[in-house]
Every structure is written in C-alpha cells, then in structure tokens.
Design brief:
Radius of gyration: 14 Å
Helix content: 25-40%
Distance between the termini: 42 Å
Structural class: alpha+beta
Low-confidence stretches: none
Largest sheet: 3 strands, antiparallel
Mean pLDDT: 88
Order of helices and strands: EHHEEH
Number of strands: 3
Shape: globular
Length: 79
C-alpha cells in the first residue's frame, strides 16, 4: 500500500505549526541545497529530503520534515 504524503505550502505549514514562522521555513529551505553562486559559503542542511518542488511551488512533506528535525538533535551520550 502506498502512503500518500501530507504536503503543505510553506504558509500552510507555518499556520499549522506556529513554532515555525514563514520566514524561518524559507531560510531552512534556502539552505537545504548547495547553491552554485554561494561558492561553498555554507553546507546544505539536509532538509531537501522533505521538500517537493513543482515548478515555482514549494511543498513540505510534514512527516519527512519532523523526521529530519529529530535527526538534527544531538545524540545523548551514555557515559
């Protein structure tokens, strides 16, 4: 069975999850992939796995976004 992703525009995502502002999401998306014009000034953040681009429209996959966010958390050391 195919799982249908829950896709949201940036504004819809920000409205549903107020902890993430529209501007903050745009910044995360901007830094999600390498820009040839950036000339190595920043590394991609890996969020590209949660972004669906169709023409100019940018959609966020809700499940993949939160999976990516969890992966960004530092691992607890068991020492």
């Amino acid at each position: 069975m195919t799982v249908i992703p829950r896709l949201f525009t940036i504004q819809q995502f920000a409205d549903k999850h107020p902890a993430f502002t529209y501007a903050a999401l745009r910044d995360l998306i901007f830094h999600s992939r390498t820009d040839p014009k950036a000339q190595g000034r920043f590394e991609p953040n890996g969020l590209a796995v949660a972004i669906v681009r169709r023409g100019r429209r940018i959609l966020l996959d809700e499940v993949k976004f939160f999976t990516w966010l969890d992966e960004q958390q530092p691992k607890a050391s068991n020492e």
